[in-house]
Amino acid sequence: MQSNQKWSSKIGFILASAGAAIGLGAIWKFPYMTGMNGGGAFYLVFIAFTIIIGLPILIAEFIIGRGAGTEAVQAYNKFAPKSLWSFIGHWGVAGAFLLMSFYSVVGGWVLIYSALSIPGLIIKENANYAELFAQITGSPLIVILGLALVMLINIVVVSLGIQNGIEKASKVLMPLLFIFFIVLVIRAVTFEGAMEGVRFFLQPDFSKLNAENILYALGQSFFLLAVGISVMVTYSSYLSKDVSIPFAAGSVSIMNIIVTLLAGLAIFPVVFAFGLEPTEGPGLLFIVLPEAFSGMPFGELFLSLFLLLFLFAVLTSSFSMLEIITAAFTNKKKRSRKKVAFLAGLLVFIVGIPAALSSNVLAEFKIFGLTVFDATDFLVSNIMLPAGCLFIALFIGYRMDKSIVKEEFTAANQLSQGSFQTWYGIMRYLAPITIIIVFLTSLGII
């Protein structure tokens, strides 16, 4: 394996993995999903799923990837040769492909907003920001242009490899994300009426919970950790043996939870202060941000900085999706990374066009009552990610050699035998049973 296909440091791997997890899921999708599913109760269930199920599965993906030392498809083949288990890697590549096809559409929205904010074309007196969002997403030319530019950036960075592309970008972008988020939170909570939004976000009302939004909370926990589609299997295949996998996975999970907390505290105080609806949906963030910055000195400047930060977060996540696709087709037949990245990016762009047009010319085209964008989101977030996590839990609990699993779990750390047995028990019993129960309950079977 080439030297630039290894992480140069532990912090580089952790920040890149956090970047894969912390992106649109935490900043864009999490706030509106929380708003549409009851606020504080949804957030509490999300945190519980993240710690009890998501974190152990993230550890499992890291173990599979580093243990195999190769990308996702070949990793499952290595530990279960000539068996059906290899389909988990293919499932992951397909999931990453579909996820990126609609994810990059939203990335295009962010890119367009960023470009408009720099010359001061967003914040205006008596502006209707909901109408502005509708105008931008309602233009086929604008949304397709945004999608194309996001894919082009991804192709360039992934073509450069791990150290020179993804790792260098993540080391700069992830710290900036936290700094600017803290600035936005400070601004948000100073609005009159902001505390009502804080209470909505942090005060649980369990009467608003039902089987459907519990499934959404499970899917959201997997979405935000980027588990279930073996992205982290590919990332950890570039990881050296002197890094503690539980420590690295715990660091990524903690950063993830912190960012969702900051996102909620940045968004919901503004929503309630300006009388907006927390159930606004995918456009929530693009309406709330201009409102938040419009009433402060140098608001346009701060909006531009935050949108650039938002764009950075989008890109660090999308890098991981294109990487798993590129790695799968590069390693198999030693193809050129640059050529594979270009072809994969081009194909994702083409498949993403219907999702991009879901807010304009294809708005009336429905799949089971959902637009192409929403249907793809539902398929990936609520079916493919949980199912992928179930397959991974079963693989590591019942198929992979336990001695290899233990060796990877305990390498470079002083965790006790009991810690390993507890985690292993979660993978064999708690994780599969929980995922199956949530699935069956959401379908009304139990």
UniProtKB/TrEMBL annotation:
Compartment annotation: Membrane
TM ranges: 12-30, 42-64, 84-112, 132-160, 172-194, 214-235, 247-276, 301-328, 340-358, 378-398, 426-445
Annotated Gene Ontology cellular component terms: membrane
Topology term for the membrane: Multi-pass membrane protein
Keyword Disulfide bond assigned: no
Main location: membrane
Family the entry assigns: Belongs to the sodium:neurotransmitter symporter (SNF) (TC 2.A.22) family.
GO MF assignments: symporter activity
NCBIfam families, per the entry: Na_transp (NF037979)
Protein name: Transporter
Keyword Transport: yes
Keywords: Membrane, Symport, Transmembrane, Transmembrane helix, Transport
Organism whose genome encodes this protein: Oceanobacillus piezotolerans
Superkingdom of source: Bacteria
